[in-house]
Design a protein that fits this description.
seven-stranded mixed beta sheet, alcohol dehydrogenase (NAD+) activity, 25% strand, 336 residues, six-stranded parallel beta sheet, ADH-like_N, Quinone Oxidoreductase, Chain A, domain 1, single chain, Rossmann fold, 2 domains, ADH-like_C, alpha/beta, EC 1.1.1.1
């Protein structure tokens, strides 16, 4: 079978391709023919060699959908022919995450899914929602489940509340859909009129172009009659934390995605304490969370927004395109 591995070059498409022996399932294991994968910004860091703990020669990517082709002794959850989706934390089954579960991230610290056949522990995958095709299902493990946490954390979204999402990446657009399904009002920031139009088409109440209005927190305050947002999806790496805090209403929750960049001139802890704002780092979710999200996706018939689909021979093109960071939604690659 064909497998892709990081080559240590530091390029966004720095991979080598080789033919390797296809794996056989052991006790409690299944093998899955990968039909599609989706890309996350974490994957670019791993391939470029900037992710802590990553290594040259690793099979990258965490998110995939595929068909079970064989099962080993003791397998009870799946059988050949089943459609499944990988999990971002394969050892996090339910409840709070453990230190041991945090150490195993496919495509980052252990072998990933950018290969034609992958061997999984049976509990490391979940059934794919029936209404989604392979590429759509492949978008779920990281971005969708992270967006789902907006609804299921210690301060769930309630009908009529105001949710602010930043940009048009996968997490923000999934959070938008889930917030709308919960009856919330959604405001978004973006960088272009074309993206603003598409966001409005997805049910966003108002869009602020942060290139035209750099101090967008003031504009969002104005749009909400001075109230501010009840929930904020803070991308972190965009250097927007201080504005997110200024956007938040009293008692709001800021949901951090990624890692905060750039120290604001005022200590964020002081700003948040003054407003009674909760600051919460979202870390994807457990297998149990994934199953709950998939039930909601199926009940609501929600489909992920996909920016572009690439074919089996376009892995390198997909990575270069994704590195441009101009997409609206997810970028996916059909492997078979």
């Amino acid at each position: 079978m064909k497998a892709y591995r990081t080559d240590g070059s530091g390029r966004p498409d720095g991979l080598s391709v080789s033919e390797v022996e296809a794996p056989e399932p052991g006790h409690g294991e299944i093998t899955v023919r990968i039909k599609a994968v989706s890309l996350n910004y974490l994957d670019l860091k791993v391939i470029a060699g900037s992710f802590p703990g990553g290594r040259t020669g690793l099979v990258p990517l965490s998110d995939a959908a595929g068909e079970v082709i064989a099962s080993g002794p003791g397998v009870t959850l799946f059988r050949p022919g089943d459609r499944v989706v990988s999990t971002f934390f394969p050892r996090w089954l339910a409840g709070p995450i453990t230190d041991e579960a945090r150490t195993a991230i496919p495509g980052s610290t252990v072998e990933g899914v950018l290969q034609e056949i992958v061997r999984f522990r049976e509990e490391a995958v979940v059934p794919a929602p029936e209404h989604l095709d392979w590429e759509q299902a492949a978008t779920l493990p990281c971005a969708a489940l992270t967006g789902w946490q907006l609804l299921t954390g210690p301060r769930p979204v309630l009908p009529g509340e105001i949710v602010l999402v930043q940009g048009t990446g996968g997490v923000s657009l999934f959070a938008l859909q889930f917030a709308r399904a919960a009856g919330a009002r959604v405001i978004a920031t973006t960088s272009s009129p074309a993206k603003a139009e598409r966001l409005l088409g997805m049910g966003v109440e108002a869009v602020v172009d942060y290139r035209q209005i750099p101090e967008w927190s003031d504009e969002i305050r104005r749009l909400t009659g001075g109230k501010g947002a009840d929930h904020v999806i803070e991308i972190g790496e965009a250097g927007t934390l201080q504005q997110s805090i200024r956007t938040a209403t009293v008692g709001a929750q800021i949901n951090l995605i990624g890692r905060p960049v750039g120290a604001p001139p005022v200590d964020p802890a002081i700003l948040m304490a003054a407003m009674g704002v909760t600051y919460r780092r979202i870390g994807v979710g457990s297998r149990a969370d994934f199953l709950a999200m998939n039930r909601a996706l199926s009940a609501l018939q929600l489909k992920p927004p996909i920016d572009r689909r690439f074919g089996p021979d376009e892995v390198f093109e997909a990575l270069r395109y994704f590195a441009g960071r101009g997409q609206f939604g997810k970028v996916v690659v059909a492997l078979s």
